[in-house]
Amino acid sequence: MHTEKDGVLWAIGAYVIWGLLPIYWKSLAYVSSGEILISRIAWAFISTLLLVLLMKNGRQLLIDIKMLWKSQRDFWLLFIASVLVSSNWFIYIWAVNNDHLVQTSLGYYINPLVSVLLGVFFLKEKLSKALKGAFLLATTGVMILTVSYGEFPWVAFSLAVTFAIYGLVKKQIQLDALRGLTIETLFITPLAIGYYVYMYYQGNVVFLHNDLKTDLLLVFTGIATALPLVMFAKGAQKIPLYMIGFLQYIAPTMMLFLGVIIYGETFEIIDLISFIFIWSALVVFTVSKIIQTRKIKRSLSIVD
Fold first, then answer.
1. 104, 96 Cβ separation under 8 angstroms
2. C-alpha span between 286 and 137 (Å, rounded)
3. 3-26 confidence digits (pLDDT tens)
């Protein structure tokens, strides 16, 4: 019980940090989204590598890289994962700094449903009646938003899809979360540095060309990226999957609050109606998962 309580605290801590990160990105709104992304990738790699070395897992990291190279399928899958998560980070940063926090929140609300849909198509998982109902409710909510906006909410959709596919790809690879993130950022760091050099010669960089505060904020993007991921990994090991599913709505709820209450983004009655459909879908989704998990536990206890 104590272990599960610790896991809940770790997971809540991770989601609260993710929920508050828009404030951090807003403080760098005067820096281009591209440069923030480059900083996030490069400094996340440095931060995670240092953490791996401090935990004395450097040798295991090398073993992981060698094993990945032997399995070309896993090697390229992880490369694809690094491209997907980088794309997700860029869309997220751009959306936050261009006043699309409500859509960002929507994207992370519908992400679990997109993940389930990918599981049905690619992993041949079965879709229960409850989940079919959840999809119908969520689709209705997204359609209402599309009609009210006059265009498809591509920011929310892109965030949900890139992160869901990222999760699907990562599911195919058995790799420690921290070392996995280190290798992912290692894959993409050379490309990020190359693009930074291009931006530098174009005269479009802020790092080391503005003030110390900006430089420090850009450096700490690595810690802001790595810390919640490590906390989440520690929490996920100690709590049931259905509890993770329930807790994951903390972050988008905080983003929605920040967008509407703090930053004054529009949230009209039509937005509320569409979100009610999506929230209802998430309630159906979460409750069905809890019931399913409990049934599995009961059947296992009967067998024992």
1. yes
2. 14
3. 777 888 888 999 999 999 999 999
